[in-house]
User: Which sequence fits this backbone?
């Protein structure tokens, strides 16, 4: 039987702090195709602040993910600590894709408890100069469970629109840059999530996107292949 998030959380709480990193690495699922996201979620729930901050700076990818994911809870606990959000933003631009995903998980944790703060974080990220951070903004907010809140659903559409404008502003000769490619891939699925979260307003915005730009045409095609958008288009 698979270990539950609560069981992992209990195990982490019971460990001496000096043993936590080894426990996380031993149960990470890495190297391998899939990291242990259940353990990651448990770590985000229970890791003490100073340990989480140390882990967020680790070279080990999974340890860094656990520390970064915990930043979401820490930001909720100490909302005025600007350094926490600054660190989360830095990790949203990390070269390691799993660490970037952990930053999005942290943002979604914020959104589960404080949608207003989530929208503020996402607005900051999609206005950032780094394409990876912009991508983190749309990946964070384009999560179906968060879009049940109408204001957040509207913010997701706005985030996708701003991220699309960012992509179009990059000269075509620079769009094969890895950071820009990551953003384009994110737009290739985030639009469909955002539109499904608010179809009445989202569909007209999506359908108005122009295919004159080759990269935006690719984004449009990718989203049209998603079942959530196919169902809306058929309806």
Assistant:
């Amino acid at each position: 039987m698979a270990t539950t998030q609560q069981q992992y959380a209990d195990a982490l709480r019971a460990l001496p702090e000096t043993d936590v990193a080894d426990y996380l690495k031993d149960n990470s699922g890495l190297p391998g195709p899939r990291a242990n996201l259940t353990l990651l979620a448990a770590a985000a729930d229970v890791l003490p602040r100073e340990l989480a901050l140390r882990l967020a700076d680790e070279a080990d990818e999974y340890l860094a993910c656990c520390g970064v994911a915990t930043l979401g809870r820490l930001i909720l606990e100490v909302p005025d600590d600007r350094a926490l959000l600054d660190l989360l933003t830095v990790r949203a631009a990390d070269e390691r894709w799993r660490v970037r995903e952990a930053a999005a998980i942290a943002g979604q944790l914020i959104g589960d408890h404080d949608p207003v703060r989530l929208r503020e974080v996402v607005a900051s990220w999609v206005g950032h100069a780094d394409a990876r951070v912009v991508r983190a903004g749309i990946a964070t907010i384009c999560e179906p469970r968060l879009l049940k809140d109408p204001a957040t659903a509207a913010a997701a559409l706005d985030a996708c629109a701003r991220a699309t404008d960012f992509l179009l502003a990059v000269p075509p000769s620079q769009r094969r840059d890895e950071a820009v490619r990551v953003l384009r891939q994110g737009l290739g699925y985030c639009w469909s999530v955002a539109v499904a979260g608010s179809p009445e307003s989202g569909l007209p915005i999506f359908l108005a996107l122009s295919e004159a730009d080759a990269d935006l045409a690719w984004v449009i095609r990718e989203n049209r292949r998603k079942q959530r958008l196919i169902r809306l288009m058929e309806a």
Observations:
- The two ends are 41 Å apart (CA to CA).
